[in-house]
Design brief:
Length: 277
């Protein structure tokens, strides 16, 4: 008969083993990309793989020397930042209006949600035709505008739930003290809602940073972003696997840094809300 203490230890060992295996299935591909990005070309293609070798930065030098990845990085950064800030500026008042005044009723709120149900492939061709007609094709403002259109509903839906947790008495107290409705929103609601807005902003930034389909169709050589630039390294002459892994690390590293910098705000925004009564 197995004792309670032995059974409890066996359960913990089993659970930790399962968690380790599940974590390794996620972490190992990333570690393999990191390893390959520092490998010489001969070592990168070697089968069976060589685990221990002297690392090199040649792959990183190549993507900046042979390909202008610094420009592609700036393109991605500018588009992601502009679309994120714009979505927050437009989405926060819209979400506040839905949460406080039920603007348009449930039909409008559901309408905002249904815009997220359209497959992206159905929108990219109309975007291409419109932008080509008005001169926004192959431009960063055009790409940022396309991201804004399908990220605003996402931001609105995140912030609606957050604003609904805020007591209406805060707005009423501010207006009694002389604030207008807009002043109450800017001076009271926005500072209190900063964790939720930051959460929505980070998710919006990540969606814009990683987006591939619209960037592929709506950009050209001058406005190419990082995901499209990485795909361009895969050619008919072959795949420069070391350069691809180095470029992938260039894409992933800002996301890792973003998470570690704002993880506290992300947890607060998604779990805690703003005020506990």
């Amino acid at each position: 008969m197995i004792s309670y203490k032995a059974r409890n230890r066996l359960t913990k060992i089993t659970m930790h083993t399962m968690l380790i295996v599940a974590s390794m299935t996620i972490i190992f591909p990333f570690l393999w990309i990191l390893r390959t990005s520092f490998a010489y070309k001969v070592i990168a293609y070697r089968i069976p793989p060589e685990w221990f070798f002297f690392p090199t930065l040649d792959n990183y030098f190549m993507i900046f020397k042979s390909h202008p990845f610094h420009i592609f990085f700036l393109n991605s950064l500018v588009v992601a930042l502009v679309s994120t800030v714009t979505c927050l500026i437009i989405g926060a008042p819209a979400a506040y209006s839905f949460a406080r005044f039920r603007t348009g009723g449930n039909s409008v709120r559901v309408g905002v949600l249904t815009t997220q149900m359209l497959p992206a492939i159905t929108l990219v061709i109309p975007f291409f035709l419109i932008f080509n007609k008005i001169g926004l094709y192959n431009s960063l403002p055009g790409l940022a505008m396309s991201y804004i259109t399908f990220n605003i509903p996402f931001v609105v839906w995140i912030l609606i739930g957050f604003f609904e947790t805020l007591p209406k008495e805060l707005d009423e107290s501010a207006m009694i003290d002389g604030c207008t409705r807009l002043g109450s929103f800017l001076r009271i609601t926005v500072p209190i809602s900063l964790p939720g807005m930051l959460s929505a902003g980070v998710f919006c930034f990540v969606l814009s940073w990683n987006e591939f389909l619209f960037a592929l169709i709506l950009t050209g050589r001058a406005s190419k972003t990082l995901p499209v630039a990485v795909a361009a390294l895969i050619t008919q002459q072959g795949t420069e696997i070391g350069a691809v892994c180095a470029a992938t690390m260039l894409i992933v590293t800002p996301m890792i840094l973003l998470y570690f910098c704002f993880r506290t705000f992300l947890i607060k925004g998604m779990v805690a809300g703003a005020i506990k009564g």
